[in-house]
Amino acid sequence: MDKQAVREAVWDAFDEGDQARFPFPPHDRIPNFAGADAAAERLAETEAWESAATLKANPDAPQLPVRRAALRAGKTVYVAQPRLRDPDPFLRLDPAEIPPEEIDDATTVSGISEYGTPTAPEAVAHVDLIVAGSVGVTTDGARIGKGEGYSDLEWAVLCEIGAVDDDTTVATTVHELSVLDGPESAVGEDADLPDPDAHDVPLDLVVTPARTIRTETPHPRPDGVDWDALDDEKLSEIPVLAERAPEKK
């Protein structure tokens, strides 16, 4: 199977069962799932969570409980702006600046834009924990997103400036349907799964409503932006990359 075939199998499994939650349909997105709150609570029991002062989280619905829990725990949360389209592509949610009664509003997709402070990569504090949205994962840390590649680009940009490093834990919260080599896998136990690409950021923790998987991943982390993989059109669409491309230095 290639990555797109895996995505379609996972999306179809959510669509055909009763595990999907709003927004619908689950296709072409990070699927929201029954038990997202429980997965967030389980993540909050890990040492990686407890020791983290700063998180970067995706803006998708299944990780809404993670963002809320982080702010309530006094952690700073960074969320990337859609498609990294702004010269200051990260929005900072500072718990010291958001009243507790407004945290629920501040962590929604629209609220992040309202409450978040646009931040350049160089102004991002060291990120202790990344929580990524996933369509499919494996227990050895491979991750498949929805196919646009922005999560990996966010890592690459922050890696270039040292805001993420070997001390940064990378986690995801997912339903068991998304655990491709798990007992409830949407693709079945005999599926021939694709290998990660060089730019893919592997996961250290996979958390479902039922279990916490410490992957001990053998897959290497990218150490920066793969400039050769980005064409002029892609660079022109993302100011933070266009400004930092080697030929512009």
Summarize the structure.
The chain is an alpha/beta fold. It is built from nine helices and ten strands.
Numbering strands along the chain, what is their spatial order in the largest sheet? 4-3-2-1-5-8-9-10
SSE arrangement, N to C: HHHEHEEHHEEEEHEEEHH
Give the overall shape, derived from the CA principal axes.
globular
The major beta sheet can be summarized as: 8 strands, mixed
Number of strands: 10
Description:
It is globular and about 45 Å long. The protein has 9 helices and 10 strands. It has an 8-stranded mixed beta sheet. The termini are far apart. The model has no long low-confidence stretch (mean pLDDT 95). The protein has 249 residues and is an alpha/beta fold.
Write a concise keyword list for the protein shown above.
single chain, 249 residues, alpha/beta, eight-stranded mixed β-sheet, two-stranded antiparallel ribbon, 9 helices, 10 strands, globular
Give the topology, please.
Blueprint: H1 3-16, H2 36-43, H3 47-51, E1 54-57, H4 64-72, E2 76-80, E3 90-93, H5 103-106, H6 109-115, E4 117-119, E5 129-132, E6 136-137, E7 143-144, H7 150-160, E8 169-173, E9 205-207, E10 212-214, H8 232-237, H9 239-242
Parallel strand pairs: 1-2, 1-5, 5-8, 8-9
Antiparallel strand pairs: 2-3, 3-4, 6-7, 9-10
